[in-house]
Design a protein that fits this description.
Blueprint lengths: L7 H35 L5 H7 L2 H5 L2 H15 L3 H9 L7 H38 L9 H24 L3 H6 L5 H7 L1 H16 L7 E4 L4 E8 L3 E6 L4 E5 L2 H4 L3 E2 L1 H6 L2 E9 L9 H7 L6 H17 L16 H14 L11 E4 L7 E9 L4 H18 L13 H13 L8
Antiparallel strand pairs: 1-2, 1-5, 2-3, 3-4, 6-8, 7-8
């Protein structure tokens, strides 16, 4: 057939042999490298080599072998000499026929080697991150994943420049010099990457967040533990087990709350008010004073207060018969406040080196709030909630001992009782 070389069958056979050799070499080198690496890693006590194997660094590098075979074998298979390929590459003569095919195959092979090395480097950097997280306790406070991702990104960009240069037969320096006019475009394209890189540096240098921190980000409706800090994103596992992904630079430009300080301090704040009915506040009778004085939490308080009241009354005995002297008497709410304070102070689960207050707040439509402000010495969420429940269970139950009642707005049952009472009295509860 005209236009076809006489040794076409030999060329086809050579190409088939080359392809088979490439497939076999890839299969053999991959299995040999994997097997050898695993055996070597299994004999060592360290785990860093296991992480490199798990990330398939050597397995990816093994793919270079068939590319090298293609680079050097394509000329032999097509019957093209290295001089012909070099002349075509140097531009001495325009490539044609098999010389063009061989030149393209060699360029693609070199480009494939560059891409393979870049992918293997990225896998190696991932293995470095795994080793760092396993071997160093500071990995939670100083994660390096973002920095490694920057190196990986730079390597991919460099590989892309080299690949384009190889395929286009242009020097990488000449190619980069032509990108000067595209700087503004590149800045726009990599805007998020630049912002994230700057934010990552600020976050790590200021120790703003760590893996495992409990954070609240109201703008993103995120509330939970940080499980990953990467170059572009921070992943938060919310308490409902959903995952929120927030751009890294948001932690610099927006406000958020980090609960790490609470965990490290060893105390978790309890701030809750008990609303008391104003109508139940009154002075204590002598019988109530005597009874309450037997309470362990009030013994010292009642002794001091009764002495103080008696001294005050003795100082006013000389007043005239037409003058009512100022009287000081104990109130049930004041005595209850002292009881709550002593009760909390004696509780072993309340932090004894942090603020402890029992105070009245301004009265309102819901009665008089008696606020408890203290700190639990157990920051675990479950234990913290159980402690609060135990404290207020006890306080609600002990209120009648002081003649006090908790305020509660009327419910439907209260209105039904009122209607029934009014009906028994012969009155219409709605229309008098």
């Amino acid at each position: 057939m005209a236009g076809l070389p006489d040794n076409l069958l030999n060329i086809v056979a050579s190409l088939v042999i080359l392809v088979v050799a490439m497939v076999l070499s890839n299969w053999i080198t991959t299995r040999v490298i994997r097997g050898t690496a695993r055996r070597v890693a299994g004999r060592t006590k360290s785990t860093w080599d296991d992480r490199i194997i798990d990330r398939k660094v050597f397995a990816r590098l093994a793919h270079i072998v068939p590319a090298v075979l293609a680079y050097y074998g394509i000329g032999l298979a097509l019957g093209v000499t290295p001089g012909d390929i070099a002349g075509a590459t140097a531009g001495v003569a325009p490539p044609a026929g098999f010389i063009l095919v061989a030149t393209l195959v060699q360029r693609i092979s070199l480009a494939f080697v560059v891409v393979t090395v870049a992918v293997a480097l990225a896998s190696f950097l991932e293995a470095v991150n795994d080793i760092y997280n396993e071997s160093y306790a500071a990995s939670k406070s100083r994660p390096i994943k973002g920095y490694l991702q920057v190196v990986s990104l730079v390597s991919y960009i460099a590989a892309g420049v080299v690949v384009i240069s190889i395929l286009a037969q242009v020097s990488p320096l000449a190619f980069l010099s032509g990108l000067g006019a595209l700087t503004a475009v590149l800045m726009l394209v990599f805007k998020d990457t630049i912002l994230s890189l700057v934010a990552s540096i600020q976050i790590m240098s200021n120790d703003m967040i760590r893996i495992g921190d409990w954070v609240e980000v109201p703008q993103s409706n995120a509330d939970g533990d940080i499980i990953d800090i990467a170059l572009h994103t921070v992943k938060i596992q919310n308490w409902d087990k959903t995952i929120s992904t927030i751009p890294t630079h948001k932690f610099i430009g927006e406000s958020f709350k980090n609960w790490r300080g609470m965990s490290e301090s060893g105390g978790r704040r309890i701030k809750r008010a008990l609303n008391l009915d104003v109508n139940t506040i009154r002075f204590l009778s002598e019988e109530e004073i005597e009874r309450l004085s037997r309470y362990e939490m009030l013994r010292e308080y009642m002794k001091a207060k009764t002495t103080e009241v008696a001294d005050h009354a003795a100082a006013r005995e000389g007043a005239g018969p037409d003058l009512i002297p100022e009287q000081r008497r104990l109130t049930n709410i004041g005595t209850f406040r002292a009881y709550v304070f002593n009760y909390l102070k004696a509780n072993p689960t309340i932090h004894d080196r942090m603020t402890l207050l029992v105070r009245q707040l301004s009265p309102g439509p819901q009665g008089v709030p008696l606020e408890i402000y203290c700190f639990s010495n157990d920051t675990d969420w479950g234990n913290y909630e159980a402690l609060q429940d135990d404290i207020f269970d006890h306080l609600f139950a002990v209120l009648p001992e002081f003649g006090l009642q908790a305020f509660q707005e009327p419910a439907g049952s209260d209105f039904r009782k009122l209607a029934a009472t009014a009906g028994d009295a012969g009155h219409n509860p709605v229309f008098p």
